[in-house]
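Colleagues,

Please find the record for the two-part complex below.
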Amino acid sequence: MSQTTLELLAQQAAAGDPAASAAFLARLDAILRPLNGAMLDKVAWCALALKDQRADQNGPAQHPAPIPATGADAASIPSGVVTLTPEQLEWYRQQINEEEVVATLRDLRANGGLSSEELLSVLDDEASRP
Amino acid sequence: MSAAGEGSTHYRVVYSGQVRARLQALLARADALALRPAIAAAVREIDARLRVYPQFGQPLRDMATAGETLWIGAVGPLVVKYGIDDPRRLVFVVEPFQPLPRLGL
């Protein structure tokens, strides 16, 4: 019942009804409030991904579809977002060379670097190699 | 550099030249293990996530000298370290992608 009401409010909000929009956001706030940080991150990611998808449909920017892994080891390698454990985080923390990281940050801020498109072109170059 | 993301809520991702050079080497090694498609998919997914919501990763360390936080994001089978400039909607990838341990790469 409440789900239907929320869906109706969403539809009315999408149609431009400001009162429905306010009511929808108030309901959503109440629904999201009990969630922990990780779940809120996922909700935010879903919303932004939807927004991004819509932008893709309306403009030239494209997010390439992931390529499914193949090969004998493909089933055993991890895919998707992985949450690192405190131990793993500590291991990566110990690898940091702060001086180098700070110097790279400064350089990228001052001089720029490669764009997403420039980086991803490596994948295309490599993929086209015999 | 691309202006993609300007005027929108997207972030613009800036990679160091070292990231690209090391990615080429990583792809060459991945070839031998038939892991190239998985690496390529992870790179694409990481880039897409950084553009839309770089907070998908985990804060790794506060950089005292720069007053910034270094983040780490893991999208199997890769790990990426980066800084976020939220007011300017920029993400700086400061270190080459690293494979998760025990992949043989």
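The longest strand of chain A covers residues 80-82.

Comments are welcome before we finalize the supplementary table.
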